[in-house]
Amino acid sequence: MRPVILRRGLVALFAAAVSFGAIVQAQAETLRIGYQKYGTLVLLKAKGTLDKRLALQGVDVKWTEFPGGPQLLEGLNVGSIDVGVTGETPPVFAQAVFLPPADARAAFERGSVDAWVILAPYQAAAGQQLQARTLHDGSGIVDNHQFYLATKPYAQQHPEVIKALVEEVRAVGEWSKANPQEVTEQVASLLGLSTVITLTLVKRQGYGAGFLTPEVIAAQQKIADSFYQLKLIPMLLSIQDVIWTPPAAVAKAP
Fold first, then answer.
1. Residue 87: C-alpha distances to residues 132, 151, 164, 248 (Å)
2. How many domains does the chain have?
3. Per-residue b/e over 117-155, b at no fewer than 16 CB within 10 Å?
C-alpha cells in the first residue's frame, strides 16, 4: 500500500496577474481559458453557460487543458491564453521531483517515487484504484486557495468579460453544491475518471469565488518572501503590485 499526500479542498478566489490603472474597454472577440482537470472551470466548461452568455455578446470562448499549474502559467506568460486557474503552493517534506500528474502517477505505480503530493482528482483515483493511503492533507500547512488569473491587457480592455466569468463561476458553484450527481455525470468523461471516483471528488471540492482579501495577499507575500530567502526565485516580489483592483461594476458582480 503506497502513500499519497492529499492537498486540501479548494476555496476559489479571484485574482489577476497584474496591477491596473485606468481601464480602457474594448470589444472582445474571444476569451481563451486555460484549465486543469480539477475545480470549477471543468464544471463551467461542461455546463456551457459561460459560452452561451458570451456568445450573445459576440465573444467566442476557447478552452485549453493544461497538465499542471506551471504549464498553465507559462501559457499566460507567452500570451496563448487570457485567463487561467492554479492552486496553492504544495507542501514538500522530502527531496522533490516535479512531474506532470500523469507522469507522476506512473512513477508512483512503478515505485520510482515514495510519495506523491497531488491535487484532488488524482488523489481520489489513486485511493480507489491503487489502494493508496493518504498520509496527510494540507490542513494547517497551506491555505490552499485556488487562484483565477488574467493577463494585464485582457483584464484592462475587457472587464465586462471578466465580470461574466466571475458571475458564472459563482453560479456554477452554487448549482454544483446542490446537484452533485448531475455534476458527476457531466464531468466524469472530461476528467477521464469513473463516476464513482468523480462523485467522491465532487463532494470533497470547495466552491465559490471572491476577490482577494488583505489576509490572502499577506499569506502570498509570506510565501514569496520564503521562496526568495530559499533562493528559489531571484528577486523579492511585491504581491500587492500584481493584484487586480476590479472596476466597480465587476466588484459588485452578484
1. 22, 17, 22, 26
2. 1
3. bbbbbbbbbbbeeeebeeeebbeebbbbbbbbbbbeebb
- Identify the weakest region by mean pLDDT among 1-10, 55-64, 212-221: 1-10
Q: How far apart are CA 150 and CA 156, in angstroms?
A: 10
pLDDT at 90: 60
> Rounded to a whole number, what is the distance in angstroms from the first to the last CA of the chain?
46
CATH of the domain at 140: 3.40.190.10
- Residues 27-65 have pLDDT tens digits of 679 999 999 887 789 889 989 999 999 999 999 999 999
Q: What is the mean pLDDT of residues 169-181?
A: 91
Residue 95 structural domain: 3-251
Place of cell 461574466: 164
